Every structure is written in C-alpha cells, then in structure tokens.
Amino acid sequence: MKFSSQEEFGMRLLLRIAKSDSPHGLTIPEISVLEGISISNAGKILRILRLGGFVDSARGQTGGYKLTKPPNEIIVNDVMIILGGKLYESNFCDLHAGTENICTNSIDCSIRSLWRTIQRMIDDVLIQISLQDLLGKEEDVDLLVGNYVERIKNLCV
Asked: Each residue of 6-51: pLDDT tens digit?
C-alpha cells in the first residue's frame, strides 16, 4: 500500500498554511517555494483542497490561501478522503473482479475481511487526528498516534 504524492503534498500544503502567520494567507508561488513543489502541482492540489472546503483563496495583491476552519477542526481523515479516497472502498471487489462480472470469491472472501479490518483501523486513528495535532513536533505526533493505536488494540482484545 502506498499513499500518493497528492495526499502527501496536500497534507504538507495544509500544514504550511496553518503555520503561516500572514494575515493575507500564502500565495501559490510562496507555497510552491516553501514546499519544494512545482507551481502547477501546488495549484492543482490547492484547488482540490478548496473544493473540499479546507482552504479559501482571495485574489489580488493581498490575496492568498487560508484555512476555512481552525486547525483543530480539520480532521486528517476528512482531508485524506478528499485528496485520494480510502485505501479500501466498499466497491473495491466490483472494480477488481478480473475477467468475470463479479469476483469469484465474492461469497466468502478472507482477503476482503483483511482489507476491511485494515481500513477500519486506519479510519479509527485518522478520525482522531486534527491538523492542529500535526503542528507539533514529530516525537509528539508519534506519541499521540501511538496512544490512539494502543487504545484501538485494547478495544480489539
């Protein structure tokens, strides 16, 4: 499993905007330079984030991109869904039936069970993490996420 560059850069762009103390927000060229990505890629991802309701943009000399909500109200799971969807969607089996109309394992599928469980665990962590949480140091985020994972593991036992 892999996360796409769109998901990685999208999260980075949101964090960059959240960290900015500019009253006017950040422009695409500023964000592009600060994050080391092309202007066109930054623009494409910011458009997705704007349509998803996470950022607003203002045109003109004092224009730029700002968050639409405080960082503590932006949930990572919601952002990831807008940027790339889930790793496992309920229609996954329909899309991977092979040469048949339906998957030959659609009645009793141990693989589907595995993917559903992994997706549930990912969701359980990501719905608890806000953009505000990611503004901390890496070790603080490691500890926070580790605590959530431990709680989830204890619920499963």
From this structure: 999 999 999 999 999 888 899 999 999 999 999 999 999 999 999 9
Co-location of 111 and 54 in the same domain: no
DSSP one-letter string for 101-129: SS-TTSSS-HHHHHHHHHHHHHHHHHTT-
Q: Are 131 and 14 a contacting pair, CB within 8 Å? A: yes
3-class SS of residue 86: coil
What's the domain count of the chain? 2
Q: How far apart are CA 104 and CA 141, in angstroms?
A: 42
Judgement on whether residues 78 and 31 belong to the same structural domain of the protein: no
- Domain span at residue 57 reads 5-67
Helix ranges (H only) for 27-129 are 28-35, 39-51, 76-84, 92-95, 110-126
> Do 62 and 11 share a structural domain?
yes
Confidence of residue 127 (pLDDT cuts 50, 70, 90): very high
